[in-house]
């Protein structure tokens, strides 16, 4: 009997270990939540809000100042926190810039509802909803803001301004750049509207420098860019110091010259033209 009693004691001692092991195995077998955004729905700003009928083709009118939308995930993502960011992909207010970003929690149905108010009409163009977590991008869903009424007026432009990017990643005016200003930004402010967009071109040329002339150091073209009293920006970075001498930056609109600016880069104190 003592031998049987010992066997029973051992059997009972092993039972909870077996159960705990099974629970650990079951927990480890649970699939990780799928945080990839599946779809995006936009809604008119009505009393029904996010429960109304989705807008067709994921397009907001620019006159809808409060944007309502829903990002849909797999239901396994319920309760998970992600970062919701709104990026100006190609708009009359800029390109590639994050306009809004915040942490958000996916609801129990696997949905993330957002409301984005603006005190004026929304800039026209293409937007990206960027979902990320821990600095890793999980997915991008895009939509458009279109003008409720098409407009086209003459485009005028200010003088081109030059800025340098400092070591602490801030911009400061640089009308007389130095050779060590490897990152330069050229900005021109426009007045006028093109809701259907225009083709913008930038070209930086070396006219007379230590390295010789170069008609196209760097150039870029942006097609169908909506304009509405917009700032046009051209960023240029050189991997080494700039050769000293005379340079020219030119801005075009639909292939026609719109503005140009000549400037010098000298080791001393150059004078901008």
Beta strands, count:
17
- Stretches where pLDDT falls below 50 for ≥5 residues? 1-23, 269-273
* Quaternary structure of the protein: single chain
SSE order: HEEEEEEEEEEEEEEEEE
Strand content: over 45%
Structural class: mainly beta
What's the total helix number? 1
Q: What is the averaged pLDDT score?
A: 89
Helix content: 10-25%
User: How far apart are the first and last residues' alpha carbons, in Å?
Assistant: 108 Å
**Cα gyration radius (Å):** 29 Å
Question: How do the strands of the widest beta sheet line up side by side?
Answer: 2-8-7-4-5
Query: What is the overall silhouette?
Result: globular
The largest sheet is: 5 strands, mixed
Q: What this model shows, in words?
A:
The chain has 273 residues and is mostly beta strands. The N terminus and C terminus are likely disordered. Helices cover 10% and strands 51% of the residues. Strands 2-8-7-4-5 form a 5-stranded mixed beta sheet, with no helix packed on it. Strands 9, 10, 11, 12 and 15 form a 5-stranded antiparallel beta sheet that branches. The chain is globular and about 65 Å long.
Question: Briefly, what is this?
Answer:
By secondary structure, the chain is mainly beta. The protein contains one helix and 17 strands.
Task: List descriptors.
single chain; 273 residues; mainly beta; five-stranded mixed beta sheet; five-stranded antiparallel beta sheet; 1 helix; 17 strands; 10% helix; disordered N terminus; disordered C terminus
Sequence-ordered SSE layout with sheet pairings:
Blueprint (H helix, E strand, L loop, with lengths): L1 H28 L9 E5 L15 E3 L4 E7 L8 E11 L5 E9 L5 E7 L7 E9 L2 E11 L9 E2 L3 E5 L5 E3 L9 E9 L1 E17 L4 E15 L2 E7 L7 E9 L2 E10 L8
Parallel strand pairs: 2-8
Antiparallel strand pairs: 1-3, 3-6, 4-5, 4-7, 7-8, 9-12, 10-11, 10-12, 12-15, 13-14, 13-16, 16-17
């Amino acid at each position: 009997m003592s031998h049987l009693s010992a066997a029973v004691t051992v059997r009972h001692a092993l039972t909870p270990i077996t159960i705990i092991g099974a629970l650990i195995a079951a927990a480890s077998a649970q699939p990780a939540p799928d945080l990839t955004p599946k779809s995006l729905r936009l809604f008119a700003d009505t009393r029904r809000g996010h429960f109304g009928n989705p807008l067709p083709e994921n397009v907001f009118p620019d006159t809808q100042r409060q944007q309502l939308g829903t990002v849909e995930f797999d239901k396994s993502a319920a309760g998970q926190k992600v970062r919701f960011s709104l990026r100006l992909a190609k708009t009359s207010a800029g390109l590639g810039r994050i306009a809004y970003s915040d942490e958000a929690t996916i609801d129990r149905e696997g949905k993330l509802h957002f409301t984005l108010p603006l005190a004026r009409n929304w800039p026209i163009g293409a937007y990206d909803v960027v979902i990320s977590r821990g600095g890793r991008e999980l997915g991008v869903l895009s939509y458009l803001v279109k003008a409720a009424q098409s407009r086209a007026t003459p485009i005028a432009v200010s003088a081109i301004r030059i800025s340098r990017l400092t070591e602490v990643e801030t911009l400061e005016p640089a009308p007389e750049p130095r050779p060590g200003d490897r990152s330069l930004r050229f900005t021109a402010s426009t007045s006028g509207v093109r809701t259907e967009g225009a083709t913008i071109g930038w070209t930086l040329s070396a006219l007379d420098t230590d390295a010789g002339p170069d008609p196209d150091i760097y150039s870029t073209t942006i097609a169908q860019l909506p304009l509405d009293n917009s700032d046009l920006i051209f960023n240029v970075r050189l991997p080494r110091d700039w050769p000293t001498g005379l340079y020219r930056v030119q801005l075009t609109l639909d292939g026609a010259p719109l503005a140009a600016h000549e400037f010098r880069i000298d080791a001393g104190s150059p004078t901008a033209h």
